[in-house]
């Protein structure tokens, strides 16, 4: 895990995993608490965290794509699309980012 912090692609992979975990937490813990138990406090806390991680992943994908000279049609758009598909960041980490 420490090795991932040394490169931009490694940091992007960490962001992908964190963004996916934040969505899992939001969808499977915070939202049920809000709608079934009437307790929106976790949504108010996790929602902005997930939004921030989402934007960081998006901006870092563009930054890494430009720096690494990724071909937009082959790599960059797939990685960007992954953050718009629920849990797509886990898939894109395994299929693309881990191989770079």
Describe this protein's structure.
- With 100 residues, this protein is an all-alpha fold.
- The protein has one domain.
- Helices cover 76% and strands 0% of the residues.
- The chain contains four helices and no strands.
- The chain has helices spanning 8-37, 41-67, 72-82, 88-95.
- Helix 1 (8-37) packs antiparallel against helix 2 and helix 1 packs antiparallel against helix 4.
- The two termini are 16 Å apart.
- The mean pLDDT is 89.
Provide key terms for this protein:
76% helix, mainly alpha, membrane, elongated, 0% strand, transmembrane, DUF3817_TM
Report the mean per-residue pLDDT as an integer. 89
- Backbone CA Rg: 15 Å
Strand content: under 5%
Termini separation: 16 Å
Strand tally: 0
Shape: elongated
Number of domains: 1
Largest sheet: none
Tally of separate helices? 4
pLDDT under 50 segments (min length 5)? none
Helix and strand succession? Answer: HHHH
Query: Residue share in helices?
Result: over 70%
Structural class: mainly alpha
Transmembrane segments: 12-33, 45-63
Main location: membrane
Subcellular location: Cell membrane
Protein name: DUF3817 domain-containing protein
